[in-house]
């Protein structure tokens, strides 16, 4: 497997992205194409030890900055590292692309260059989150803010295929995020989506409430991108807030400092277990190719993991599985397909 | 001030509700009418010490169970404790009502008996949540799952009036929950709502992202009831999960147990600071009267606080302030009012 890495994307690029690539090729049987300014990348690689036949450079003269609008970046920066990386996938010179750069631009570029899979109306961004017993996938987390029930059905199929492949789970439990477990609970979107999911060819376990998403009772949790983004951000914000508050309270009690020293290894383990970088980034699902969008603040370890997961996804042909599942579903529900084409037209 | 307490509502009723009433009348200059089965309540009061002129009993022969549907409960249980409590407010024999019973039934009954305030399309449930620096109000958290922008404007006015009164804040900072700080970020509902809030007679500070809601940067956070409920429940679930995971990690390291003993007072302080029961429950805003819905698992302390806040709200005439603000707003935006009447018709 060969992964095209947008080496210039991310807050600590290119040194950290290059370090992540080196870790990946040293640890796994994967090749990485570093996409970006050749001179800068050669500098970054200098004096490093790695299996040199596994890392190559593909020159790109431009870098998309974080403040640029996706449409302008696509129009103007035709030689950007992010675009060149995705083009390598299109030309089948790489099996997958990874970028820790501007996520909106990465998504728009992937859509523009690779296109959508047949029967997909809306590609989605999924994210892996830690639960009490392992990990779950939340889909969509920001690509689509106003959704129709058909979109949520697509998300369910996409999440199902991804989870199966990446976690080797034969039958992931798919749940719909809502405000009550009964099928009558929810808003218009979820009530209609519930009916579609019940009849979809997946292991649908019904609605899941906000309080239960971290329980480990569902493997894939489906929602529209507005809610998904808010749930993701609220969770990140709350986890940080709780740790800050605990630290403050601990330093306020007499025995706190000593106690803190004693539980420090446990805090470290906790942070490791809940570290987003274990799965390296958010897969963009529903496009005709494999693309992973990593956090701007990705560490070398996060980049390494993103490269591994991207190679894994490409090897297991997750996007083809999604296309097959949606094509079977479209055969069963021709009206849903028509509705989608209608909405597109 | 006299508060009608649904003494039969809640998981630990009536003993805990009665205990909460006793705490409230002992601590504050408030009278409480315990509404429920007279014999059972007299039993619960027996041998307790309290200023007896401040507690009275209003008999109600029925209790609404947690599994009952609001419409059926209203139709069939005309002598329920929850209904009788709210009727006392309607008849001006009490200034406010508090119930820790079935929240859906409490809301539907309050709406049915007390009615909506003029210019209110959708009453809302608000909830107080802890932040890094104090508390913020999230509105709506479940009463309205599908909203129009006009509803979010109403929620903003209601939250503003409530926060001003209960926290003695002259100009609460009102923010709109969305997926980006710029006014162009969000879904259709929030983008339209942003325009209305910008022109509303409140201290609107713009969009707030999920990651920042606990930062203390906003006093009132406005959203539709579906999102609000999910944010509330995700937060409760995540806080519990983090504490469980931390405990597990702590007990897994050698020095953990001793360290845990040493930080225990800090954990206690943390729990106290983040305790929902400090404000006793969720005010139902937009109805023609004062009504607080408490958590089913409310402790005596939570009931005491709910009674205190209910008396405070009634004394400060929060519902009249809301009516005035919305009437001024309707005068400024007659089209918005028309749109609402149209939607109702």
What is the percent of helical residues of chain A?
Answer: 40-55%
* Biggest beta sheet attributes of chain A: 11 strands, mixed
DSSP helix count of chain A? 12
Structural class, from helix and strand content of chain A? alpha/beta
Quick one: how many beta strands of chain A?
11
Question: Rounded to an integer, what's the Rg of chain A over CA atoms?
Answer: 21 Å
Structural summary, described in words:
The structure is a homodimer of 345-residue chains. The first copy, chain A, contains 12 helices and 11 strands. Chain A is of the alpha/beta class and 345 residues long. Chain A folds into 2 domains: 1-120 and 286-345, Isopropylmalate Dehydrogenase (3-Layer(aba) Sandwich), CATH 3.40.718.10; 141-278, 3-Layer(aba) Sandwich (Isopropylmalate Dehydrogenase). In chain A, strands 3-2-1-4-11-10-5-6-9-7-8 form an 11-stranded mixed β-sheet, sandwiched between helices. In chain A, strand 10 (282-285) and strand 11 form a beta hairpin. In chain A, helix 1 packs across helix 10, helix 6 crosses helix 7 and helix 11 (318-332) packs across helix 12 (334-344). The longest helix of chain A has 28 residues, at 225-252. Chain A is globular, with a radius of gyration of 21 Å. The two termini of chain A are 37 Å apart. The model of chain A is unreliable at 336-345 (pLDDT under 50).
